[in-house]
Write a structure and sequence with these properties.
It is a single chain. By secondary structure, the chain is an alpha/beta fold. The chain has 9 helices and 10 strands. A hairpin with a 2-residue loop joins strand 1 (about 10-20) and strand 2. Helix 3 runs parallel beside helix 5. The relative contact order is 0.18.
């Protein structure tokens, strides 16, 4: 367990420019264990770009990303994952030609390769394989996909693909969970499964959750804190009720995004 007095995750003046356009502009933010922070803002505000900078999908033009106090600004995304950062990508990390179970088993195996199953030999392969499959089935059950375990990922509905993506993220067992609109494209009856999972992760009290979400009812039900991005800049940061009621959010987010 990390006991040092720095936040789990921190960005300092994090910036990215695309030509003359500053998509994320000197965003400084600290994220502590046991908290769920919702990141909101109108379309084009820089929310997903900020996520991409934090998770290592994009290189920063300036500023720093620190994970458990370690500067990971130049670290590739897989390195950040090994260090405890987990990111749910909007369907881009699924293997469409593999079954639902195999997709999650690969994530369990990737996690295991960095821990107690490092250095598998031929004697241990079979017992380890059984253990990996059992863990994968556990994560599938958590997202209500156990009955679809043999289905190819490509044959799932959009909503079930999103649930599979969350199962993969759970299987990586990160310290930092990053969800980018996790319920987008889901039917109304599918949404509660994912929201309950996120609530359970938050309830563990030792995980850090970042959530990009447009639905303000979801934000109100889950968030301990809201930060607001507008035109790439951090314009509000605080308790949900205070931030939602603030003039800058009423104008920059609710007014622009309504409709």
């Amino acid at each position: 367990m990390h006991t040092v007095p720095h936040p789990v995750l921190e960005t300092r003046d994090l910036t990215i420019r695309f030509g003359g356009h500053v998509a994320v502009n000197a965003v400084s933010c600290r994220f502590e264990a046991g908290t769920l922070t919702a990141i909101v803002g109108p379309n084009g505000a820089g929310k997903t770009t900020y996520f991409n900078l934090v998770s290592g999908q994009l290189p920063a033009s300036a500023g720093r990303v620190l994970l458990f106090g370690e500067d990971v600004t130049r670290a590739a995304a897989p390195v950040r994952t090994r260090k405890g950062m987990g990111r749910a990508f909007q369907l881009t990390n699924l293997f469409p030609g593999l079954s639902v179970l195999e997709n999650v088993r690969l994530a369990v195996q990737a996690r295991a390769a960095g821990s107690h199953l490092r250095g598998l030999n031929l004697v241990s392969v079979w017992s380890s394989h059984v253990e990996l499959v059992e863990k994968a089935e556990h994560f599938l059950a958590r997202v209500a996909l156990a009955e679809r375990r043999r289905t190819l990922a490509s044959e799932l509905s959009h909503g079930d693909q999103r649930k599979l993506e969350v199962a993969i993220l759970l299987a990586l067992e990160p310290e930092v969970f990053m969800f980018d609109e996790p319920t987008a494209g889901m039917s109304v009856d599918e949404v509660p499964v994912i929201l309950e999972l996120i609530h359970d992760i938050k309830a563990q009290k030792n995980k850090t959750v970042l959530l990009v979400e447009h639905k303000m009812d979801v934000v109100r039900s889950l968030a301990d804190r809201i930060i607001v991005l507008h035109q790439g800049a951090l314009v509000a940061d605080g308790a949900p009720a205070d931030v939602i009621a603030s003039p800058v959010v009423q104008e920059a987010y609710l007014g622009v995004a309504r409709g």
